[in-house]
Amino acid sequence: MARKVRAAAVHAAPVFMDKAATLTKVVQLIKHAKTRDIELLAFPETFIPGYPYFIECYPPIKQVSALAAYGEQSVVVKDDLHEVQAACREAEISICLGISERISNGYTLFNSQVFIDAQGDIKGVHRKLQPTYVERMVWAQGGGHTLRTYDSLGDFKIGGLCCWENTMPLARQALTLDGEEIHVGAWPALNTMAGFESSANAQIEALMKNHALTGQTFVICASNYVDDSCLNWMKENLGEQDSVRAGGGWSAVIHPFCMFLAGPHEGAIEKLVSAELDLSDLGQVKVWVDSNGHYRRPEVFDFRVKRRPLWADDMDCAAWPSGERDQQLKHKIESVLRMLKRGDFNYYGERAAVAAASALVIFGAPQIANAGTPSEDAVVVDGTSFALNGDNVSYRFHVDNSTGDLLSDHFGGSISGSLPPAAVPQVNGWVGMPGRVRREFPDQGRGDFRIPAVRIRQTAGYTVSDLQYQSHTVVQGKPDLPGLPATRGSEDDVTTLVVHLYDNYSSIAADLSYSIFPKYDAIVRSVNVTNRGVGNITIEALASLSVDLPFEDLDMISLNGDWARERRRERRRVEYGIQGFGSTTGFSSHLHNPFLTLVTPATTESQGEAWGFSLVYTGSFAVNVEKGSQGFTRAMLGFNPEQLSWNLGPNESLTSPECVSIYSKEGIGGMSRSFHRFYRKHLMRSQFATSNRPPLLNSWEGLGFDYNESSMYKLAEESAALGAKLFVMDDGWFGNKYPRDDDDAGLGDWQPNRQKFPDGLDPLVSNVTELKAANTSTDLRFGIWIEPEMVDPNSTLYHEHPDWALHAGPYPRTLTRNQLVLNVALPEVQDFIINFVSNLLKSADITYIKWDHNRGVHELPSPRADHEYMLGMYHVFDTLTSRFPDVLWEGCASGGGRFDPGVLQYFPQIWTSDDTDGLERIYIQLGTSLVYPPSAMGAHISAVPNQQTGRTTPIEFRGHVAMMGGGFGLELNPEELDAHDKAALPGLINLAEKVNPIVLNGDMWRLSLPEDSNWPAVLFISEDGSQAVLFYFQVRANINRATPWVRLQGLDAQAMYNVDGVGTYSGATLMNMGLQFPLDGDYGSKVVFLEKQ
Hints:
This protein is of the alpha+beta class.
């Protein structure tokens, strides 16, 4: 489809030296353009307050007062353009407005172009790079940071240059390589100046046509003319002159093949010189010549733009979102002022003092509140060196000025002051310099043979990239990721650094986002890749995070397993070469978890360094650890390249999931506790993330599919009698033509089965919710099981919509558990799921959902379909959990097949495993706790012999293990229990409710692990430290040996603690000596409460 835009050059004179009147005129011109159906309007050079022609006419010493007045009438972008923005918004017109720009609270001026979109948002400001001749008395030099194009003013990429800035071949080439499709050449009335009367228009025409052809761009040339208001002002304020006359100007719209589409228009007659730009013509022009493609010859010419900020506020000019600039600026200045107050010049040195002084002069000194809080210096930028600072972590990197590459300096414990110089690598052999340094975002090629963080196949087939630093932005707070789950925080919690990279050869941009949560020593990173070129590209690999650690020996810890033995920890040495894991199941899976820990060989549970990395994603993923030839260890987490191949057309972007990295100097346990606190506070958004959960009974292991309304109600009565406060009806309640009497039919037909529930679900739900939990006035709540992402071939849904199931063309659709996976990437499937779940929750008083998912993906229509599925699934999750915030949602995937941070964003608890055996669950739950908070774990007591292991363990042992999860419950039929077990359940439920608040919000200390000890032990300490609960287990009987001591951790050494049933002891005694608990026989257990005195 052709892209067309109606554009016009404004050929007009301002109200000279009258900012207010000219702003009114700009608004009038925009309104007039609306009547002409103009979509894009280009204004002349410094239209506000007019070009200072007097600089050509009078001696410099005579101009001082005139220049001061000109500064007063110049535009402060953040203050003066609100009416213009409103006019753009009302007329739905985008503009490029020429202004003399004045820095806020200062008198430095720039010759600038402001780009404002049709929503009235200022998208950026270009500052003229080189003022010409006597212009240097008026305007400062702009920097490369503002030399760029914008794709947000319409379905095109627009750039601009001012006057003789258009003679700069490299400036024009920079815009060409940035994908410019429309160029605004802003000019004064050059031919009114003495000496230029006969040559100016010819020069302008030649320059504009030259750029149109060599840049393959449409050119809008906008010029003002000199009117009486200008001549009279100069005469009245400076005297007679004969260097500038009335009239002049040259405005036109030019095709890339140099034809005039409108104009040229000259002289003192106001006009909108307009034409329709058919952007599809660019493709035909580029068949002949493509300066950003085959005419570029990158193997011959090496072109680079230094887009580093030059002026104090340059970083705001290229991307100036409404309302954010002032706040960002305030925080930057406050940070510098705090530095001055501390006298912290070791690291910053003289450059910081100069920067601070400049900031104060230009922007004024803000009022500072709460100086000295830990997060104030979370992100510090010194030129092109970057420091992210947490309470106990420092993350530093810098730009290599010779290559534009980002190089890592440090990721570990807090550091201060200047950094010792790093040894310069010697390049010998095949490995080039890029392969001998620590890189932040390694791309493919140029002598780095290690695995890259990004691999992009360009239109011509190349997979080499050259992403170089362009600029950076610092934001207080943390933006959300489009369509993806993400950690969140206020401006007091988190600061975000965005580093903008650009490949001048391919016109590909990459934005690296680093968010630092100082309180948790957490650094969160994601990547956004944008195709700013004209051809299609394919992203074949993209890591959310890549980090190179120094040359030292390290171990890696991962969580692996399978169904019924999820997340078993495995520790191994990092060897030379690539070692990794991941998932191609379409989901995070039981097989491997999207989590990695790197530790030193000496690191233990309680001491030593640990680096944890957790990918906030539910789809297929890849984790790679590579020890390269130089001894550096590269860790990388992100998309699985086997299921990506993401095509990007021009101006399209792909955002990676984010990866959370946490550093701890207090061992693996310290890292885990930071993850737990961080995820509870800043990832899990449900109100139930930290609020008490009702103990539940689930019908599955008690009744299976074999039930009806009366038997289900009877089981609910039994549940209430035991003290359960939530009753959950599991699989088997739906389907009519294809009744769900086994796992062979019915998925997708989400209507209550009329044989089991003749009057629907409401009668059962109403009766159940009228029951009272034993010895309380609490109503029993009702929950239900669903599996919305699945369909059985034996279902009405499948027969009506077979195309809704994921499949690969004519290939057979393989079944698992007799079912297929719905393609949740399809909007119609998303709507189906949202509607049926909404209707279900509205049909009765249902306050809990168990959302199951019982198979992986076998056949995908394309590799990118997995991420498309994830985006659709997250949309469904977000819509439903937002619509029903009072429902407790629990995730499940054949047990723990989707226990990942992506699900935790929406569901505050996840069924940890289908294996409910008490002993197996200790391994599984403690393994899961390596990264995930115990509050997120669903853990139930089931009947014995256990269905998965056949093992019989005491009910107290099973109960105590289950209490270590935030979602405690029962998975059994009370009628089938022996007298002892049934009698024990009410007490265990009461104990679980007492323990639950501490498990939900407290810190977990793994005192001893089942892999290492016959006596696994776990201590939970409440958030305020006033309470603690110890879980102590004995796996095998301790025959004819002494009883071991269990040493506690995390207590206040100086405080006294009352130990339930034992005595009162100091924290130091409990941590350095410990407690003894003799237990009899196999599978013994004990729960002990501690109260701080």
